[in-house]
Amino acid sequence: MLRGGRGDDILVGGAGNDQLYGGAGADQFRFFGNQVGGASDVDSIYDLNFAQGDKLVFGEYNGLFDTDAPGLNGFANGDSAIITSFEGLAAAYEASGGRITYSGNAAYDLLIINFETGNGSTQTLRISNGYAAFTQELSS
């Protein structure tokens, strides 16, 4: 379990299944495709709050993020991205060519989103209180 404090924290979901709590402040939740252990990692984010300035930061994803959109800044030939909103996360999904998939549970507002790393493994994020906001952006 990784738990941030009251400030702006950086939490890195490395190899293995992690539970991430950013706490107050503008937190960064970082994930690297080359650090996924085995076929997949499942990391849970319990308090992602883009309105507080939280960000999802991805690196080493072999061209997965080869686009820019509001809330999505892809760079390093699409290997990396900074996502600052559910609008940006939805844009990444829509531009992924099937390399990003999602499911979830509307009753619990749980978003489960899978990122194919491009090296034979998958990073899965379970984002609490994210399903409604993400699917609303998809239908916009």
Report on this structure.
With 140 residues, the protein is mostly beta strands. It has one domain (2-138). Helices cover 13% and strands 39% of the residues. The protein has helices at residues 86-95, 131-138, and strands spanning 2-3, 10-13, 19-21, 28-32, 40-45, 55-59, 68-69, 72-75, 80-83, 100-105, 110-116, 122-128. The strands form two sheets. The chain has a six-stranded mixed sheet. Strands 2-4-6-9-8-7 form a six-stranded mixed sheet. Strand 8 and strand 9 (80-83) form a beta hairpin. Helix 1 (86-95) packs across helix 2 (131-138). The longest helix has 10 residues, at 86-95. It is globular, with a radius of gyration of 14 Å. The mean pLDDT is 95.
